[in-house]
Structures are given as structure tokens and as C-alpha cells.
Amino acid sequence: MAQKLTVPAVRSRKVADGMDPLVMVTAYDAPGARMVDEAGTDLILVGDSVAMVVLGYADTLQVTVEDIAHHTAAVYRAGPSALIVADMPWMSFHVSTEDTLRNAATLVRAGAQAVKLEGGRRRLPMVEALVAAEIPVMGHIGLTPQSVNAMGGFRVQGKNAAAALNLVAAAKALAHAGCFAIVLEGVPDQVAAMVTRSVDVPTIGIGAGPDCDGQVLVFHDVLGIEQRIRPRFVRRYADQYSDGVDALSRYARDVRSGAFPSAEESYRLSDADAESLALYGAS
Ligand code: KIV
Predict the structure, then answer these.
(1) How confident is the model over 98-154, as pLDDT tens digits?
(2) What is the predicted pLDDT for the residue at 140?
(3) Which residues contact residue 81 at a Cβ distance below 8 angstroms, ignoring those fewer than 6 apart?
(4) Catalytic one among 185, 226, 265, 275?
């Protein structure tokens, strides 16, 4: 088994320093975590995207700390070498630092080595409190899906000079507050490159172009399990939805035709036991 990746090891992964880009993928259960880990990814994100790709909600606002803890525990039980990062759901880090610490501790006790939270400078007190409590924090700025109502939809951010400079300032403030890495979501690639150059912690992009220090995608998007929406930044490496429908259709056909199960797929009494059973009137 590969050695477990640590937070300090992730923190030093700047591509500008000659390091390999970080690879992060989401996972929400044990088989998914085993697949992601065996593929050699560096980090597993138990994202609040579970709300949309697993639980069927239209946005990420519906999941709770208990939901993320439940999924984090399943990922943890798979024993991955990848670093497990759990997403702090909406309203789990907005009320008070005490509440934030209690919620993050629930995720750490479920198996997370770090937590991720969305937002810029407004979240600095929460980031500082978590870091002071020895809980590593990953920041997340740009298109922050928990702000869907405030943003008026899932919209690319940092699209003019002032907004871009705001993102640079937010990233610097988060790094200064102690974030060990920062997710940049849904920003123009020149802006992501500028943010990446401005901070000494790695940036991990999603819809942020090639110049980040790493990339993250959602498990169901990479594998083509989620097909209803396909953002521009998603590259599908498989078509598991179609493969799954095809396999399940063949199973249904075999059940209906009697081709499943076969003798090899069934258990049988020995001839002697079958005979004595027959004596009782069964055959
Ligand atoms: O929840 C999630 O999957 C995320 C990624 C999109 C970064 O936050």
C-alpha cells in the first residue's frame, strides 16, 4: 500500500517549484474511494456535490454535517492512501467559530484529515479558528456553489479586472490565514494563473484552466455516470451510465427469458440428500 499523503506534503506541491500537479477526485462511498485510490489520486474530496450527483438535489444546499460525516466515514473505511478532505456544508461554518469547530471536529472524527470551506475574506475568522485547533483547511473561491442563490446561478466569477484582483486578494488572505491549498472553481484561466502565482500554497482548479497546481473533478463526471448536465470543464473518461443501463437491461432480459440463473449460478443438494428430501414429498 502506498504511503498516506500528508497535509504538509500537499502544501508544498507548487508546480512552479518543479512539483507534479495534484490530482483530486470526489468520492462518497467505500467502493468509489477504493477506485479513486487505486488510480493513484493524491486527494479524495468528500464533496457536498454528493447532494447533486448522489442524493438527487438541484443544488448543494440540502446536505448537512451528518450527511457529509456519513459519507466521509464510508470513504475512510476503504483505507485510502489519498488524503481525505471533507466539505463543510452550507451553514456549518457561518454561525460562529464555536459551531464551525464543532462541525469540523465531527468530520475529522468521521475520518477526514482536512476540511474544505467555501468563501473568501468573510470566512477568515473561521479558517483561523480551525487552523488554531489543528484542523487543516482547504479554501475554495471563485464559483462557490453554496452561493448559488446569492450569485443568481452557477456563474463563472472573476470576469473583469476588479473581480479578478478581488480573487487574488482573497486567495492571499486565505493562504495567510493558514489554508494549505485553495480550490479555484469557475474562473477564467488567466485569472487562475494569476492567483496561482500570487500564493505559496497550491491551487486546485475546476473550470479554472491548466495553470493551477492541480485539478479536481467530480467522480460521476469523470466516469460518465452523471449525464444530465455536462459543464464545459468536464472531461469524461468513461460512459458508465450507458454501460450500466446496458448491463442491467441484459440482466432483466436474462431473468425474463429464464437464462439467469444457470445451474452453475445455483446451489444443489447431493443426490442422496435430494432423495431423502423426496421421501418427504418434495422434489
Ligand atoms: O463538492 C464538490 O465536489 C466540490 C468540488 C467541485 C471542488 O466542492
Answers:
(1) 999 999 999 999 999 999 999 999 999 999 999 999 999 999 999 999 999 999 999
(2) 98
(3) 1, 2, 3, 4, 5, 37
(4) 185
Task: Identify any residues that bridge with 142 across adjacent strands, giving them in sequence order.
Answer: 185
Q: Residue 1 has what pLDDT?
A: 58
Q: Which atom of ligand 1 is nearest to the CA of 26?
A: 3
Q: Which residue type does 50 have?
A: V
The pTM (predicted TM-score) of the whole model is 0.95
Q: Domain extents for the chain? A: 7-238, 243-282
Q: Beta strand 114-118 with 43-46: parallel, antiparallel or unpaired?
A: unpaired
Res 92: pLDDT: 98
| Residues of the chain predicted below pLDDT 70 | 1, 282-283
CA 277: distance to chain centroid? 54
Question: Of 109, 77, 74, 72, which is closest to residue 89 (Cα–Cα)?
Answer: 72
- Catalytic, 185? Answer yes
CA distance linking residue 92 with residue 63, whole number of Å = 10
pLDDT of residue 152: 93
Model pLDDT, residue 283: 46
Q: Which CATH number is associated with domain 7-238?
A: 3.20.20.60
Cell of 114: 482536512
Buried b / exposed e along 147-169 (16+ C-beta atoms within 10 A) = bbeeeeebebbbeeeeebebbbe
Helix (H, G, I), strand (E, B) or coil at 249: helix
Q: Which of 138, 144, 216, 222 to mutate to test the pocket of ligand 1 (most atoms within 8 A of CB)?
A: 216
Q: Is the CB of 130 under 6 A from ligand 1?
A: no
For the CA of 145, the nearest atom of ligand 1: 8
- pLDDT at position 164: 98
**Atom 1 of ligand 1, residue of closest alpha carbon:** 47
